[in-house]
Amino acid sequence: MVWSLISEATRLSDWVRCMSDTRATDALPDRFVIAECAVVAGDELRYHERGFVVVERNRILDVGEGSGPAELPRIELPDRLIVPGYLNGHTHVGDAGLKELGFGSPPGTNLLWQPNGLRFQHMGAMSREERIAGMRGAVMQMIAVGTVLFADFREGGAAGVEELLEACSGLPIRPLVFGRLATNPVFTVDEFAANSADLPTEAVREIERILEVADGYSPVWANELTDPALTRSARMARDAGRRLATHACETPLYRSLSRERTGRGDVERVLQHLEPDFVVHMTSATDSELDLVVDAGLPMIMCPRSQEGLGTGLPPVAAAWRKGATLGFGTDNVMLTTPEVLAEAQYYALAARGRTGDTAIVDSWRLLASSTIDTARALGVDSEFGSISPGKSAHLVCYDMSRPNLRYSRDPIATIVTRATPADIEVSLFDGQPAVGSLPAPVHP
Questions:
Q1: pLDDT value at position 11?
Q2: Same domain, 67 and 213
């Protein structure tokens, strides 16, 4: 297993390097314009059929309609469409070395839950080297599909966070890592029932270690902790200047177990005691629970493919949109689904129409926003990521619209969010430099 995982990561590294023409990268001047292409510009995702993007070092200097400034070195890309780099709002890449573990298991099988779920048993049996190799392969796959940032709920405490950071080392992508307690459950059955115990000393110390190395902290769900412990962990994260997130209302069990213990559903407890930056899933949320989250101004990240694969159901994406939610997509466990966030939009576009019979239930612009700017807003990184806007980092994905899969498109945005594949990407830029593919040498005026 060690050999196969490390070989996979090495092959992906070589593949990405081969796809990127370092000679073209080295030839890029400090300031240049990409022109004569279609561009999706700004936080509003405005479509310019003939647009331009000015890149200065690693940032967007200007973007707009027309041919762009004539005095700059030019890279003309006719028949291309440039969109913002994608953000994957929720991943678990720690189980990337366990693809399809438990596939076809009967209902009720513990696949994912600490401490005895299949993934935890097998992750615990893997060496550190194996886990890092598996994660690095998954991160390479995200890079190959135009992903420039991903948010991971990393298991294994501070050590798990450090493994993921090592797996990402030197790669053209930004990990946003939320650490989780390695020791779980924290409380006994009686302590959960009493709902009065604060975090034990060992858990406090573990969270402190997590916050030293991670971008944020994530309880698995509200039922992982008592109300006082949720409040304490949230205060620790805020005092450390870190982000905070959790899963919420993924299945009816989230609500029923919380009510059994405390008299309130998990969504109510998350809002009162945790006050996170965003919540993940909400697959089984009622209309009133969605209203609570939206009224609190809390963004959501939903993961259609993994939830369908687990038999949990299709998340209420359209209902959340109608209520005015800021909503992004995530791919969840690599054990279950490929880490391709655009595939979430593509799957939801078909499944929602099929389930409801309403072919107007999805909007192509919303689907693109939920893979780019709305995910950036949910994660609190929209000052740098999520759109092609002046001042932001130059994170771009360039599609060749002349390729057979995309040619003859009558609605380019709908084409991207319903049928584009990684094979249609000509080049993606991270911080203004090719991460996959290459740009032609600029022509100087």
A1: 54
A2: no
Q: Where are the beta strands (DSSP E) in 42-102?
A: 46-56, 59-65, 74-76, 80-84, 86-92
Q: Cα separation of 11 and 137, whole Å?
A: 9
Which one has a higher pLDDT value, 343 or 183? Answer: 343
How many C-beta neighbours within 10 Å does residue 431 have? 17
Query: Is the pLDDT at 15 greater than 60, yes or no?
Result: no
308 touches 346 (CB < 8 A): no
Would the pTM count as exceeding 0.90? yes
Instruction: Tell me, yes or no, whether 63 and 103 share the same domain.
Output: no
CA dist., res. 306 & res. 294, Å (int): 23
Angle subtended by helix axes 227-239 and 201-213, to nearest 10: 30
344 plus 404 within the same structural domain: no
Which CATH number covers residue 58? 2.30.40.10
**Hey, what amino acid is at 3?**
W
From 379, 413, 428, the end of a domain falls on 379
Residues 400, 401, 404, 406, CA torsion sign? positive
Return the pLDDT at 18.
Answer: 41
- 294/267 same-domain check: yes
Q: What is the pLDDT of residue 104?
A: 87
The tokens for 180 are: 């989780």
How many other C-beta atoms can be found within 10 angstroms of the C-beta atom of residue 35? 22
In 339-394, which ranges are E strands?
none
Alpha-helical segments (H) within 244-340: 252-262, 266-269, 287-295, 304-309, 317-322
Please report whether residue 208 resides in a domain. yes
Token duo for residue 288: 């009133």
Whether the pLDDT of residue 22 is over 50: the answer is no
Domain count, the chain: 2
Domain that holds residue 261: 86-379
Of the pLDDT bands very low, low, confident and very high (cuts 50, 70, 90), residue 20 is very low
Query: In Å, what is the CA distance from 25 to each residue of 74, 104, 385, 429?
Result: 14, 45, 21, 10
User: 226 and 331: one domain?
Assistant: yes
pLDDT at 122: 84
327 or 124, higher pLDDT: 327
Distance between CA atoms of 251 and 233, rounded to whole angstroms? 23
Q: Is residue 184 domain-shared with residue 270, that is, in the same domain?
A: yes
Among candidate residues 147, 173, 152, 149, the one with its CA nearest the CA of residue 162: 152
- For residue 3, pLDDT over 80 is answered with no
Q: How far is CA 143 from CA 150, 252, 393, in A?
A: 10, 35, 16
pLDDT at residue number 17: 45
pLDDT in tens, 64-75: 999 999 999 999
10 and 91 together in one domain: no
Structural contact between residues 269 and 250, judged by C-beta atoms closer than 8 angstroms? no
